[in-house]
Structure formats: structure tokens, C-alpha cells
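hiii so my PI (J.) wants the whole complex modelled not just the main chain, which honestly fair. so below is everything: four entries, each one labled with what it is. i double checked the lines twice but i was tired so who knows lol
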Amino acid sequence: MTKTPVAVLGATGAVGQTFVRLLADHPWFELAAVAASERSTGKTYRDATRWIEGAMPDAAARMLVQPCDPMLVKAPIVFSALDASVAGDIEPRFAEAGAFVLSNAKNFRMEPDVPLVVPEVNGEHLSLIAAQRVARGWPGAIVTNANCAATVAAMALAPLHQRYQLRRLFVATMQAVSGAGYPGVASLDILGNVIPYIGEEEPKIERELPKLLGRNAGWGIEPASFTVSALANRVAVEHGHTAVMAMEFATKPAVAEALETLRAWRGMDDVAGLPSAPRPPLQVFDQPDRPQPRRDVQAGNGMTVSVGRVREDPQFHLRMVAMGHNTIRGAAGGSILNAELLMARGLFPAHHIPLTTHR
Amino acid sequence: MTKTPVAVLGATGAVGQTFVRLLADHPWFELAAVAASERSTGKTYRDATRWIEGAMPDAAARMLVQPCDPMLVKAPIVFSALDASVAGDIEPRFAEAGAFVLSNAKNFRMEPDVPLVVPEVNGEHLSLIAAQRVARGWPGAIVTNANCAATVAAMALAPLHQRYQLRRLFVATMQAVSGAGYPGVASLDILGNVIPYIGEEEPKIERELPKLLGRNAGWGIEPASFTVSALANRVAVEHGHTAVMAMEFATKPAVAEALETLRAWRGMDDVAGLPSAPRPPLQVFDQPDRPQPRRDVQAGNGMTVSVGRVREDPQFHLRMVAMGHNTIRGAAGGSILNAELLMARGLFPAHHIPLTTHR
Amino acid sequence: MTKTPVAVLGATGAVGQTFVRLLADHPWFELAAVAASERSTGKTYRDATRWIEGAMPDAAARMLVQPCDPMLVKAPIVFSALDASVAGDIEPRFAEAGAFVLSNAKNFRMEPDVPLVVPEVNGEHLSLIAAQRVARGWPGAIVTNANCAATVAAMALAPLHQRYQLRRLFVATMQAVSGAGYPGVASLDILGNVIPYIGEEEPKIERELPKLLGRNAGWGIEPASFTVSALANRVAVEHGHTAVMAMEFATKPAVAEALETLRAWRGMDDVAGLPSAPRPPLQVFDQPDRPQPRRDVQAGNGMTVSVGRVREDPQFHLRMVAMGHNTIRGAAGGSILNAELLMARGLFPAHHIPLTTHR
Amino acid sequence: MTKTPVAVLGATGAVGQTFVRLLADHPWFELAAVAASERSTGKTYRDATRWIEGAMPDAAARMLVQPCDPMLVKAPIVFSALDASVAGDIEPRFAEAGAFVLSNAKNFRMEPDVPLVVPEVNGEHLSLIAAQRVARGWPGAIVTNANCAATVAAMALAPLHQRYQLRRLFVATMQAVSGAGYPGVASLDILGNVIPYIGEEEPKIERELPKLLGRNAGWGIEPASFTVSALANRVAVEHGHTAVMAMEFATKPAVAEALETLRAWRGMDDVAGLPSAPRPPLQVFDQPDRPQPRRDVQAGNGMTVSVGRVREDPQFHLRMVAMGHNTIRGAAGGSILNAELLMARGLFPAHHIPLTTHR
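here's the output for the full assembly
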């Protein structure tokens, strides 16, 4: 089968590396270019990268790092792991040049015409791009995925919200150091420690969750009508964000019913068969002490979100714990699943699909 | 000055060791006996104990471990670090024999005639023991201190509750491994991990906080009229429980006013001058990323509770972070401060105070 | 293909769990029984086990745990993860009853007629069992694998010893907590700490290495004529023992030549194609800061040993670093590879090979 | 008493911060200036510093950070925590301007006329500065302290070398992350990991130890005639370098005798009474599992070196473990002790001692 060429922007950073690793054997996509800041361009990817994953894929290792310039990086699908400080400039240039940009940056997430998508949860929001392309005059488009902690919470909340309608949410997070990139958190700051603060994280969680669980009203996304308080913390975990939550709904669910709802949930119909989609999207634990990041983060190759400790709350209706892989489900893997869904839905313009790829 | 002899029950465990260390140079108390289970009796304290603190105090090291029997351990003040599985039997026998028992076990905390005390917060609850001694016919008494996480939260909540009256509270905790004793949490369970569960911890926090912040109505403690949801988690921290909280009050405080209230708070008047009382009881941070257990846990020799990130909450009124030393402020140090307050108030019967101690 | 039924003794412990996981999809072996101490017998494996790996294999989960009795556990191949305190009694009873026992316990490792085998290194030592069976009158046999740290070191030393003959060795180890079993090392002992002591570990490394690299002289193993000093340490690593070594040989190798020798090494000829054998057995790094346990321990599904930092030594000839997975390569995986080699060589008696297995 | 004003160069880094903390209540010295790179100058020390110790001393917090220029920073004693990349230029300029520079940088350590001093071990090397000042025409001088791991090893080796004469040494180190400064080691690199490499560390240990234990021959230091192999590793420890060593001497000591020698050692006579000198300089453990960094690093306020596991070695004579605080004993505290010794010996020129200090 002919694969679609894709590029990764910001390929040398932590999330960029996860993209490169996940794309190495992808059945539909073929890594055609890696791009990064000027400091890296012109070097091989091997030389430009302080690789922190297991073994660097050979094909990527030999590529020359390109500048983040759509004139030089010509792929119909572009995964962006760019820092927010540059994504605002670079991503639109790629969309303007015709690329579909799957972005992890926060810059465009809350724009009314930009879909913020966790496929199983709100894959139907992708249709926003039609209006986006018209309004902005772009042959391409920008699709964003959500903040990593918001993504994990949204996956666990979606089945319950769809059935009982969430009204109020408290969520406290314990987030892995890989969420801060590389080198990111200094070991002197986190060994044997908790940092009860992550810059700008709480507002992201609070505003992205209602959009993620909102309704595509045609003219845009009508955010879900619940309120959120987020309390974000950094802990000495490598990968895997844990969210402990208390939830109030329009209708109070019994615990057993909520568990059943979570277990039965499969997410959007047409997502389940995609190459990166875990089946089922959630794993639900009965053991009181699960999920745990170290033990459960690799479930579904990092794409499954784990849920447990569903129980009554003394003030709201229910409490539960959700945990998921922040750089896979909450970043690179989520973007790739978005791209797969775009292709599967034919939202990806036909003329972009290449007849052949040359390896 | 003549010191009052004291004994430690459960002296070989983690909290017992903290007692022994803190009592080594106490200005008012002198460690006269160490007691533990049959497995340890008859050995020297040095031989019976897998010591996990810095250096074992010499005097304690040479003591023979006694059985937990009031006929053999005759001290007017007895600090109990006993496990809940045996505290229910042993502690009353000491009270019956005339000792004042300062207990860390959960067994009697919620009894109507047993004070549950964090001195700066509710030192006036100690007067309950008069009725307790009459009702139970004990020449001695039992005074309990609270769950370690509840203690840390209560210290930070007290100033705000006293002024604005707490109505609703969400608290998520990130608790240190020393809270589970020694050997306690296996390294394979917690290295690079979070365990979103601590057995029986959440109900303790939820029921103890209203009693701690309640009013001594003479006939007993009238619990404060707020509700609590607790979400307790274990993290890879040695010492120091962190609690992130969202609070709703009868009257909404402005953030600046709340900060001022926290900073101005000195707790019960007659506690401030006691040997183990930190001055002030709270340290309040402006930096957004403090308190942190590793950096702040030793403040005030482990007796100061650190507070930070006081800010608005999107749903309730305020959010904040509190952190304190779980085996000092939340256990052994708290018990010792309770005993100091008993002595300072003269609640400790005169005939118990020895004329001389023989070293 | 018909699979050979196998049993695991000590199946509920940490190494026992690794056996159960590795055997779940083994192409030649089928887990037919799990056995453990009386505390566990009669329960399902799920109920008897505090499972610390990812997800428990379903088939094993439903098995009833058997006592470690050859009358009840009838499998031709028995993997033993028994503690040394009981292995000395139980393992011979299985051999006497006709089983081939693949043992991780230290008890029989240094017996003259018991092979101590790391297959790639000294697979030819397996032929010792012929004499063992005659001498002991056993229809079965005992084959041991080596101490986990000795195994990692032996794999890295073998190619160099075979070519240059090792004469003197200093080895300092930094060993993972999983080497102490579960619950094993208390988190209060190792978080942010190093323990420069592991009970009985240094003598094991010092006596096992010469036997592992020794010559099968027909009448027994002639130990290699080098001396060893081991300095064993525990560090806060989950899996993966790291050994830093200084080596003196009969002939001094140039660094480049030593690297070439390590890279070219394939181990015993007939091991390479076995199901659990990694290809190649060693991965050799040029980067100065590799191998590292967290990044390299999973290479070859935990069976590859990683080597790096080959350089001159100011006093001996060379220095290098070796790292491998202690509970896979150094324990369960090593035993399974031994069993595969026994089968492939036909050392496993024909009448033991079942015609069919019933699932 | 009038205190001598001192300055700290490189005051905002990790070692610089340790200097500032240790000098806050020093009985002889008064912190008069903090200096750092241009990025920090003109700011208050509070604003310029990402403070990673407990609480910043108030007096320092309010100081304006100065440039590292002897025209602006006029103190007779200057502690240098400068990076090696700039120390080579800056330190001589201060010596030329008349300051006594106590340096932690590697630049001048191996110069024949520059003392490399651990006071208890080789305080008599300080007299080298007379020649240094003549030869270089400096009114001031440069005195260096050793690499942090070499310092810890030298303290433990000195008593044995003085009595039995060391001939050969293998030393493997497990070094704390604070040795790499701040931010230093990324948490993604070290959580649950070992890095068997520290850039340039092994040659430093190998060349500095013979100088530290060498003899002041008047014309310069005659290095001790032993050889060293160092194998340096980074582990997930905050503070405290652990060194495991195998030693061969001219005369083989019995273990009991070696222990006695270590216990009896008091170091240079005139060091013992200095304000920062621990008494005794070594603490020697009998327990097999000590010293440990987390439990023993604070001994003697971080100035005591802990020794244990003295035992026979199968190849050399003895093995042992040494552990000490890398940023206190191995850096800032060691420099301060050097300055105290200079003053106590009167090597510090009289005209530099101020009559009064103005706060």
C-alpha cells in the first residue's frame, strides 16, 4: 500500500521524538521530513537530537533536519510539536501552503473555527475545518489536540457526560515530568518532591474540557455547560498523568451504572478501527489501587486511558481516577489518531493523497 | 529543672522512632521507658529497632524494651504510636492505671468524650477530658491527635474558617511514604509511580476535619457545619503530605484578605510559647510553586505548616495548597505539643508531677 | 504444534510472576501448573498473587495454586523461583520424581555436577547433567542459572575472556530493587538513596563468574583462572543491574579490537535460533553515557545485555559498563532459555515429551 | 568580634547558594558581596537567583549582585563557585588585586604552585602560596579545593595511606545530581535510572588523589606513588557522593587495625578546632549497610565523611565505602574550612584583616 508522506515540526524535542517513534512503522503514514529550529537544521536527525526514547528509528536517524518552512517541507500532513512561542507563526504558514497541520500547541485550540479533538470523544468536531478553510482561505487546515491532562480527563468523562450530563467538576492532577519536555524539569526540583504548580496548566484544563465535550452546532462548537476547577501538580513520574476527579451531573448515576457505562463505551463509531485506536478506548479497574502510571501507562501502546476508583462523593455525585500517557495519548499519539480519522472520513483532500512514495 | 518522665508505646515503629528522637533533648520531658510488642521486649532498644532516622539517641539505645503493660511502664505521660489493631485494648488500660495517653491511633478519635486536638487549632477541646475521666472512671485520660493529612489541612483551614466559616471543601492529597510506617510502602510499588489510594484515609479526613474545627459546647464537640470530599494519593516523597484544596465559605474572602488572615494567624494564645510550638504556626508563600515537601518540610523543625497558591476558584471561593511534616506535625510532634499544652494548662494532675527525676 | 507442559514453583513471588508472564505465549511451553507455599495453595493464582507486572495472563489467573509437591505437580519441566530457604529440599524431590528443574536458587549452583548456565556463554556445561543423573540416581535433573548480577557481567565478559583470557576483575554493581523480590526493599530505604550493601551478593558474584566462564573438562567444570573483587550496591532503579568493570587479561586487547570482539560475538552456535534468544546477544554502545537501565533494559525483550564505555584502564587493561534485566535475563528469562536449549539439544529425555496437550 | 568581609563569585548557582547559606551565620566571616555573570548583575540576589535551598538568608537576599570584577568586589577573601569556563580568567584577576581566592573550579588545581587542599588531609600544602605569590607577583593567592568525589575518597583514604601507604586503588562512585549544578541533570535522564558516565570526572579523581595525599617537599607537592582507576556514575540521589573502593597498600593492614586507624584519625592538628571542622572528621560504621547518602549526608552539618564496610578484598588488601556531602564537604564547606585554616595559621596577610566591619 502506498503510504502518505508526513512531516514532523519540532521533531527534536520530547514530543517530536515520540512522533518519530510512533510513525516509524505506521501502516498509512511515512515519515518524509523532520523539521526543527535553526540550531538543528542541516544536521542529521541523529546528530541534532538528544534522543531520550529507546532506539532511534534508522530511517529518521539519517534524515537531514529541515527548517520549519512550508517551501522546503512539503508533506500533505504535518504533525506539529512546536513550542507555543513559535507555533502561532509557523503553523498557519503550513496551512496556507496546503498542509493539514495536526498541532499540539495551545495557540489555536480555543479558536472558534479550529477543532480541538480527542477522536473517540468528539471526532465530529473535525467537520469544523470546512468553515475554517473557507474563512481563512487556506487550502490546508489546522486541527489541534488538547492539553495532555485535559485529554486524559475528557476520555474518562465522555461516557458519563454523554449519559448523565456533567454539571460541576473538581479535578486534581499529578502530572509526569515528560509533560514539561526535555530537559524540562530539573532533577533537583522533583526527586522525592511534589511541585504543586504547573504554569498555565489549570486554565487550559478548565477551558478545554467544555469545548472537548461540547456539541458541534454547525456554526461552531457549543461548549458543554459545566464548570471546572483544576488543581495541577507535578510529581516524580516519567510518563502518565493521573487525574482524581469529583463530578456532579444533571442526573445522579449509581456507581454500578456508571461503571457499566464506562465499560460499555466505545467512542465514535468510525474511530474504533483506526490503526492507532485502542480497543476499547478505556480500561476500567475494580482493584481499589489502580490505575497507576507505572503499571498502566503502556496499555494499548499508550493510547488506552485507564479508569478506576469509581465511587460516591460526599458532596457531588461520583469520584473517580483517570490516568493516561501524556506524550502518547495526550500528545503525539492523539495527533496521529486525528490524522487517521481525517483520512478515514475523506476530509483529507483527494489531491493530497500521493500515488506513490519513494523511499 | 525537673523533667516529667514519659514513655513511648510502639517505640520501635516509624512514628515511635520519631517520638524517641524528638524527646531526646526535650526541655520538659524525659524518656523513661520504651515499650513495644512481645517480639521486641527484653532486647535493648538498639537491638530491637531497625532505626531509620539519623543517629539513635544514646540514652534510648541502651533502654530495655518493655511490654505495653501499665504495671511495668509507669510514666504519668504515655505517647502512643501503637497500631490501631492493638491501641483499642492497650491505651484504655494505661488511662485506667492513671496515665495521660497521647495517642496517634484512630481508635478513639471520634469518641464524643475524647479530644481530637491540633493545639493551635482547637486546644480548648482538651477540657473534654474532665468529663471523660468522670464518665469512664479513669484517673488518667486519652487525648488523640488527628490523621496526618487532616492535621495539615486543619492548620491551613483554621484561620480562614474562624473568619469566614467554611461550608464546602474539596481536598486532594499527595502523601509521603513515611505515612505508611516502616517497612510500609514497597519500593516496587512507588518508584516513579503514584498510587491513587490509601486504605481508609479518605473517610478519616472527611470526618476528622469537622471535629477539629468544631466548637467545644461544654457537653461535647459540636462539629463544624461543612462538608468534605477527600481524594487521597500516595506519591514518591519521603516526608511531607501536600493537600490541594478548594473551599467555599459562608462569606467569600478576597484573596488578599485571605492571605492576610493566614499570615496574621497565631493560633490559640497559650500554645505559642510552648517548647515545640513553631512561631508562627504557618508560613505563607507568595511564590507560585511553593510549598514543596522536599524544600519546606523541615520548617519549624517539622512543626510549621506551609501554605501557598491562595487564589480564586472558578466554582468555590478559594483554592490553596498546604504542606506539613506527616510524622512530626502530623504525628509525634503533634502529640508532644498536646502534652506540653496539658502541662501548661495544669490539666495534668498535680500528683503526677514528680519532685525529681533520677537520670 | 504440541507444547510441552511446564510448571512454575514459587509462582506468586516477583520472579515467579515474570515466569508466568514470559510463558504466557511461549511457542514451545505451556504453563500447566503454578505452585507456591501453603499460604497460597487452594486459591486461584489471581487471588493468591499480589501481581506487580502489567496485566495477568488469563489462563494463569484461573489456575488453582498447587503445593510444591511432585506428586501433585507433574510437569516434565519445572521452573523454580523458590527461595533458597526451601529450594534445597524441594528441588531435589522434583528431580527425583523425574522433572527437569530449572532453578534460580543459589543452593545447587556451585555443586560440581550441577550446571550453572548462561546459554550463550557456556551452554556446553549442560552436558554435566548426564553424570548428575547417574550419580544422584535421578530420572530428572537440576540446572541452575546464575546470580542476576553475575549473569549480566558474564555475558559482557565472555567474548573478551574467550579471546584474551581474563586474569583479574574489579566489578562494582548498581542493582535494581526488583532483585530483592516483592515487597523487598522498603521505599523509605531507597528513595533518593544508595545502599552500599546487598547481603551475600558479593561472594556469589565472585565464585559464580569463574564457574560460568570455566571449561567443561568432562569430569566437571574447571573454573576459569581469574580473580574477582565485587562491590555490590542497591540503587533506586526498578529493573536492570548495571556493572562497571576493570579487567586485566593474559593478552592486552586494544580498545578497538575489544569493541569489535564484543560486536561480533554471537555466543554458542545452537542458542542463536532459540525462541527466547536475543539476536545478537549483546548490544554495544558508542555513546559515552550508555547503557542505562531505564533506557536499555527492555532491549531484546529484556534478554539482550547492553555494553558500553569500553576504554583503557590506568591500572588494568580495559574498563567497561554492562547492564541487563535482572528478573528476565538474570532470572526467569535465563531459565527459560536454558530449557529451550535442553530441548533443542535433545538432552531432555524423549519419554517426557507429550504427544498432545489439552488446553 | 569583628568579622572579615568575604565575597562569593558565581553566587547564583548551586554551589554559590551553598556558600551563601553556610556564610549566613559564620562566626569569622561576613558576606559582603555576591557576584555573578552579567545576566544577574544589577538585580537583587533574591531576584537573580532560582534559590533551591531552604530559606534564603535575608541579608544576602537584599544585596545587589555585582559583576565578577575585582575593582567592584573588594573583599580580602573571595570564594569562587565559578564555572571552569570563566574561572581561568577571573580568579587570577582577583589574586592580582590582592584577594585570597578559594576556588572550586578545576582550572588551577594541578598547577605546581597552587595548593589543592582538604584541610584535615593536607593542610600543610597551604604553605605553597608563599612561592605562588612570589612567582606570580600576586599580593593575593589562589587556593583550590578538590573535585567533590576525590574529596570524599581522600578523607577516607588519608588515615590508611598515612599508616600503610596506598599503592593501588579502584574506586567506583555513585554521585548525587547536585554535583552537576542547577538545573543540571534533567529529571527525564535520572528518575529510576543510573548514568554510568560523568564528563571528565574520572581523570579528575585519578589525578587529584595523588596530589591530595602527596607530600609538600618545599619546592612543590610530590604526589603520592599510587595508581588509581575511577569509574564514575550518576544516581538519583539529591546530595551525597558514595565511593566504593578496593585498596592495596605497601603493608597489608588487618581489618580491625584499619578500623581502629580510621576511628582514631583526627586529621591535621590545627584544623580540629576551626568553626567548620567536624569532630571527628570521619564517622565509622559497623553496620554492614552504612553509610547511605540519605541517612548520613548531614552528619557534622555536611562536613563529616562517613566510612563503612571495611573488609578484606580478594585481590587487593581492603575494600570500603566512603560517603560525603558533595556541595558542602566537597565544595562550599571545604572552601570555607580552607579559609578558616588560612586565617588560623596567619597565612592570611595582616593588612587584610579589617579593624571593623560596617553592616
